[in-house]
């Protein structure tokens, strides 16, 4: 579509330079330039003084015209496009997010946190991978959760929405806190504070605190969040007092990015009290559980089994 518009614009500008356009075509060009001017955004800190840039472009084009003494259609198009560039930045000056230097943040066996350039803080679970720009530019703050789970505390900025891509879904916020959990079969977004929009494949849901969006089998649904996920495990020590083993396992799966395998599901109802230090290794937490329950949980890569 953009290619078609560009070719049509080039054709009209060339036609206008030869005084071959009709009044309707001239009006179309003028209306386009006016519309782009009204919607244009000029970032002087990033792009310099607009008057100086305009003069440099115009002088450079004029110099080429004098040297060649003739104006071929391409040069005429560039001359007209340069004026429209300054009058209609929104059309000719694409967001510079493509030029943002991308960084990766990866965790191994324990969760870690990182602070982004806008002040947002990301708490990454173990065995997770997160991609983000060194510095946010453009109209949106875009990041990607490539693997695992994370808790987001997003700095408020209404003019620059924060957008997280995780698998096949996009989560859009302004300033709020929420979890994103990814696995091979599903992705969940759980809101703790503020409002969040989650979308995928033409589907969209809005969430408020204690609500969850679940994307599974290509379907996006909204439901109440499991209270286990609302525990503040990400930046403080946690004591789970007289909690069922099932709830403890739910938190450990999220915090350490592992799955649990067991044959006897009856043990999941066993009540226990467990202390989880924020930077504790999974093996240390499992030692507590094994001592209390007389079970033998053991880590095999990203899977925990009962021997």
From TrEMBL:
Residues 239-305 form the Protein FecR C-terminal domain. It holds the Pfam family FecR_C. Keywords: Membrane, Transmembrane, Transmembrane helix. It comes from the Bacteria. Residues 113-197 form the FecR protein domain. Gene3D superfamilies: 2.60.120.1440, 3.55.50.30. Signal peptide: none annotated. The chain crosses the membrane at residues 74-93. This is FecR family protein. It comes from Flavobacterium ginsengiterrae. The lineage of its organism: Bacteria, Pseudomonadati, Bacteroidota, Flavobacteriia, Flavobacteriales.
């Amino acid at each position: 579509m953009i290619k078609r518009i560009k070719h049509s614009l080039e054709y009209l500008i060339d036609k206008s330079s030869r005084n071959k356009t009709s009044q309707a075509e001239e009006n179309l060009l003028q209306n386009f330039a006016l519309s782009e001017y009204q919607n244009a955004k000029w970032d002087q800190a990033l792009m310099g003084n607009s008057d100086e840039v305009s003069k440099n472009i115009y002088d450079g084009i004029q110099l080429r015209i004098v040297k060649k003494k003739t104006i071929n259609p391409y040069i005429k198009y560039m001359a007209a496009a340069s004026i429209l560039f300054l009058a209609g930045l929104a059309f000719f000056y694409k967001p510079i997010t493509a030029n943002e230097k991308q960084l990766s943040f990866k965790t191994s066996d324990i969760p870690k946190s990182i602070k982004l350039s806008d002040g947002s803080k990301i708490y990454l679970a173990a065995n997770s991978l997160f991609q983000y720009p060194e510095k946010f530019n453009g109209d949106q703050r875009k990041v990607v959760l490539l693997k695992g789970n994370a808790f987001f505390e997003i700095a408020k900025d209404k003019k620059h929405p924060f957008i997280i891509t995780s698998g096949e879904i996009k989560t859009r916020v302004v300033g709020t806190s929420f979890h994103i959990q990814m696995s091979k079969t599903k992705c969940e977004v759980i809101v703790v504070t503020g409002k969040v929009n989650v979308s995928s494949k033409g589907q969209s849901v809005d969430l408020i605190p204690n609500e969850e969006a679940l994307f599974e089998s290509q379907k996006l649904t909204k439901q109440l969040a499991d209270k286990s996920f609302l525990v503040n495990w990400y930046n403080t020590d946690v004591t789970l007092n007289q909690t069922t083993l099932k709830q403890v396992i739910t938190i450990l799966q999220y915090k350490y990015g592992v799955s649990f395998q067991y044959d006897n599901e009856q043990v999941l109802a066993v009540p226990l009290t467990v202390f989880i230090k924020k930077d504790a290794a999974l093996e240390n937490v499992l030692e507590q559980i094994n001592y209390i329950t007389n079970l033998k949980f053991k880590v095999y890569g990203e899977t925990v089994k009962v021997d």
